[in-house]
């Protein structure tokens, strides 16, 4: 634990990418294989236990630290509100042990100490946590508490971890990134396979790292040059996935590195007709067969939640895959080829199918950028989010690389809504009210329709925080109900019907565009306006 805590401190103190990579390489070179595997997992965003293996809830930790420190619960809560990070709060409220216990490996603390009591009765879990607090000095106790409360959040991305592993091992970073996809349990064996110079059988079950587009702002004619250099496609509103057809099997991988096998059996069945040794990159969409248009994303969510969909689900919510790239053909990696060549390969592969459930995502034809803008303006009518702009000569890269792939989304829909509730934020904003709930009029009643956390600058946040404190009507735990006076213009991507919301609608990706000081609450939008936009 001591060496991992030292790594955490070194990473936390540095803001330079090269310094962080050097710290990671130094750690991996000297760490036990088991500890290195856990470090790799944790620094890539993994969590000890996860949702299915409970070690300690936030409320339990606050109660236990109150008992251990002798501080009243209200002071613990106030300290947490001031610090903004529970792991740091727990560390600060506890004294260092009179005698520090001998150093134990990171893997032992996790597997033999924490995971050993996961899902056990509270008294056993409490005893394990208190034992850690009583044995570890502050620097190691902070890491211990970070393991209890979730991700480390130390300013290191998964890509930086992969770069450090590549430098340490001498392997190509693309191979390491591919092997790290999906679910895996940290162990010396996993680390050995990850760093193996040989091709492994498991490599054939792994997807490639996804290439991500960057948002385009401004005039594409000025940013991107001649339109002939670019391939235009619709930006679909579905689930990005890779479809793997290898060794007689089909695997579906989401961009979130989750296997979707079994949830979309009609796609898996259709994919069996694809040639062996191919990998498609595309979009999974709920499809309106009658209108030949994609359905709202909420329709697709009903399928995602069912690991074994029944006949009624398959009938009521049919799906399609629209493929826009081919990453592998006959077992050969095509990612280094220009996009226009990969698309030609894709057309040939899809051409072997006679099944509407897997199709090629069509090009969008435009002679110039004004015509492309006109097509983009029609996006919502087609049930899409805008246009994708991809350089015809671009290779398929890993992660978000600016310059070759852009998402040119349609301008957001807007509404004027009234601030109804506010809650304090987290981290550096833990002492300010920065999480807001907004409502619109349904007759003479304001109905909540959206929550937003972003869009105001620091000066506006401070001003609104003062107003919220001075105009609170009621308190419900950490939430304040405020006078219905402040109006804000919100931007959002779409409105979907929802039986889970009191208003009957769900607003997608709401954010604050501006504070409408010029508009009284009585002139805010009506619920009927949003209902008319709902898909």
UniProtKB/TrEMBL annotation:
Top-level division of the source organism's lineage: Bacteria
Membrane-spanning intervals of the chain: none
Gene3D superfamilies per UniProt: DNA ligase, ATP-dependent, N-terminal domain, DNA ligase/mRNA capping enzyme, Nucleic acid-binding proteins
EC number in record: 6.5.1.1
A single GO molecular function term of this UniProt record: metal ion binding
Name of the top EC class for this enzyme: ligase
Reactions catalysed according to its record: ATP + (deoxyribonucleotide)n-3'-hydroxyl + 5'-phospho-(deoxyribonucleotide)m = (deoxyribonucleotide)n+m + AMP + diphosphate
Span of domain ATP-dependent DNA ligase family profile: 312-442
GO annotation terms (biological process): cell division; DNA recombination; DNA repair; DNA replication
UniProt KW keywords: ATP-binding, Cell cycle, Cell division, DNA damage, DNA recombination, DNA repair, DNA replication, Ligase, Metal-binding, Nucleotide-binding
PROSITE patterns reported for this sequence: DNA_LIGASE_A3 (PS50160)
Statement: the UniProt record of this protein carries the keyword Cell division: yes
InterPro entries in alphabetical order: ATP-dep_DNA_ligase, ATP_dep_DNA_lig_pp_1105_fam, DNA_ligase_ATP-dep_C, DNA_ligase_ATP-dep_cent, DNA_ligase_ATP-dep_N, DNA_ligase_N_sf, NA-bd_OB-fold
PANTHER family: DNA LIGASE 1/3 FAMILY MEMBER (PTHR45674), DNA LIGASE-RELATED (PTHR45674:SF13)
NCBIfam families in the cross-refs: DNA_lig_bact, PRK09247.1
Protein name as catalogued: DNA ligase (ATP)
